[in-house]
Amino acid sequence: MGASRAVVLGGSVAGLCAAGVLAPYFDEVVVLERDLLPPDAEHRRGVPQSKHPHFLLNSGRRCIGEIFPGFEDDMLAAGGMMLMPSMDAAYCEKDGWAPRKASTMTMVYSSRILIERVLRDRVRRLDAVTTREGVSVTGVTTAAGRVTGVELREGSGAVEVIEADLVVDALGRGSSVPDWLHAAGWALPPERTLDAKVTYTSRWYQLPPADERPDSWWWKHLVITPTQDKAAHPEEHDYLSNFFPIEGDRAIVCMGSWGLEMARKPEAFEAAVDRVRASTFGEATAACTPLSEVHLTRSTGNKWRRYDLVDPVEGLVAIGDSICAFNPFYAQGMSSAARSALILAELLATGAARDDAFFREFLARQKESLDVPWMLAMARDQAYDFATGTEVVAPWRRRLAARFSWPVFNAITAASREDTYVEETFTAVFNLDRSLKEMMRDRRFLWGVARHQVRALLRRTTIPAGFDLGQDPPGTDYTDAVPGVNRQLVDA
Ligand SMILES: Cc1cc2nc3c(=O)[nH]c(=O)nc-3n(C[C@H](O)[C@H](O)[C@H](O)COP(=O)(O)OP(=O)(O)OC[C@H]3O[C@@H](n4cnc5c(N)ncnc54)[C@H](O)[C@@H]3O)c2cc1C
């Protein structure tokens, strides 16, 4: 038998995770990437979304850590920051600034370009993996009902075919692989779509030196959620805004909205920042030095190519945005990509023949895993009348979602500050470790949220609901005010 080869199309997060899981099982793994890859953490043409904040959810951090042991340490050594959002972030929610309190959830904050650089460094160390940069994949080759390789074009224009025992499509949202497969006789996977017309506008900033920041600037991350106020208000009060810390004492100031026009030019951006409903957001931004232009994207619709609904394509799997891309507000893309890569690893580890049954099993497991983030994204995005796509729901369901999704979110976050079970359950769902369906059937969770609502009505909550958003976010630590919160667990 000849040497085995896997070919990965695309060298971004999904492609790098795929290369990591394939390396132990193939003599050779070839990653094909159209861009020339920078040696350091830099933007590149093929990943324009890197200009915007990227949260790496805990499930993603854990999955990537399974693929590349020590990933978290590498991120921290490269400048990433391990923070505890409930202590290090100031959240402006329905009732103003949320009280600050320790929890069990931590996050590694960094830019997206740093994540990719760290992953690239890890892949470079794998002997089996070769990365070919500056080559465009232009098609797949097939024989006897199976994908047998890919066709690519070099920068010089030369065309080449590479044979492969397994091809992984990690070409992102715009992947042409389904069209190439269709041209070769396979059915097009049905597309499930929902575009809630989300726009992101972001600009990078240098923070002022720490000793020039006021004492009230204890926070590292600011999050301003859309207002729930029905009275007339500036459009910016409907934004979801983030002052997102990244390595190098910098921050990405990002405003996002469902269905609104957003600023593209620096002057309009600064004016909008000043109108965000918590003035701390504008004041902090004004104290920083801009490092970039304003970056705007509307490439945010949810799109799931349902390969699981058609006959499996032997010899090929799709992972990352090429199969399922999400509204980025929910920060699910990288984590879902890493999870798909791990599913592939689990199947390769069985040593099973890579036949029809193998690819069916992969698709079934991948579908189960994608259901979790997809349902979360739908729960909110189906609330908008202007959303388009196959997953638009009846007007009464839209009204229901619009009426209840933020209030339910606010009720859960408020309850989670006083009820460790609610907090841990919601954290697991937010981080894709549990499904929304499970959470909504969890009696202990529902009871915890309801109990907190009643206590709030009776004004018997232990910690305040929120603080005046006209003031700076208060730094008081309420961790010890709540009985039953295990400080040792948190400190560990
Ligand atoms: C604004 C925004 C914010 C986001 N925020 C988050 C977040 O907070 N958290 C999160 O987890 N996810 C977030 N995402 C999603 C995340 O960026 C993706 O899920 C993640 O990058 C995985 O993508 P991928 O590797 O599948 O594809 P991509 O990152 O799109 O990479 C595709 C790769 O394929 C290459 N390529 C394309 N065509 C060809 C070709 N023909 N030949 C060779 N190479 C080719 C490209 O150059 C690129 O390197 C966000 C997305 C957007 C748009």
Shape: globular
The CATH architecture of one domain: 3-Layer(bba) Sandwich
Q: Provide the CATH superfamily of one domain.
A: FAD/NAD(P)-binding domain
Instruction: List low-confidence stretches.
Output: 488-492
Indicate the CATH class of one domain: Alpha Beta
Helix content: 25-40%
What does this structure look like?
With about 500 residues, this protein is an alpha+beta fold. Among the domains are: about 5-55 and about 110-195 and about 300-380, FAD/NAD(P)-binding domain, CATH 3.50.50; about 200-295, 2-Layer Sandwich (Alpha-Beta Plaits), CATH 3.30.70. About 35% of the residues lie in helices and about 20% in strands. It contains 15 helices and 21 strands. The strands form five sheets. Strands 4, 5, 13, 14, 15, 16, 17 and 18 form an eight-stranded mixed beta sheet that branches. A five-stranded parallel beta sheet has the order 7-2-1-11-20. The chain has a three-stranded antiparallel beta sheet with strand order 8-9-10. A hairpin with a 5-residue loop joins strand 9 (about 145-155) and strand 10. It starts with a strand and ends with a helix. The model is unreliable at about 490 (pLDDT under 50). The structure holds flavin-adenine dinucleotide (FAD). Flavin-adenine dinucleotide binds near residues 14, 49 and 331.
Secondary structure blueprint with pairings:
Blueprint: E1 5-9, H1 13-22, E2 28-33, H2 58-67, H3 71-77, E3 81-83, H4 85-88, E4 89-93, E5 96-97, E6 107-109, H5 112-124, E7 129-133, E8 136-143, E9 146-153, E10 159-163, E11 166-169, H6 177-183, E12 191-194, E13 198-206, E14 221-224, E15 240-246, E16 250-258, H7 266-275, H8 279-286, E17 289-290, E18 295-297, E19 302-305, E20 316-318, E21 324-325, H9 333-349, H10 356-381, H11 395-416, H12 420-430, H13 436-440, H14 443-457, H15 487-491
Parallel strand pairs: 1-2, 1-11, 2-7, 4-14, 11-20
Antiparallel strand pairs: 3-6, 4-5, 8-9, 9-10, 12-19, 13-16, 13-17, 13-18, 14-15, 15-16, 19-21
Helix pairs in contact: 1-5, 1-9, 2-9, 7-8, 9-10, 11-12, 11-14
Bound molecules: flavin-adenine dinucleotide (FAD).
Flavin-adenine dinucleotide (FAD) is lined by residues 10-15, 32-35, 46-47, 49, 52-55, 60, 136-137, 170-173, 200, 297, 299-300, 320-322, 328, 331-335, 337.
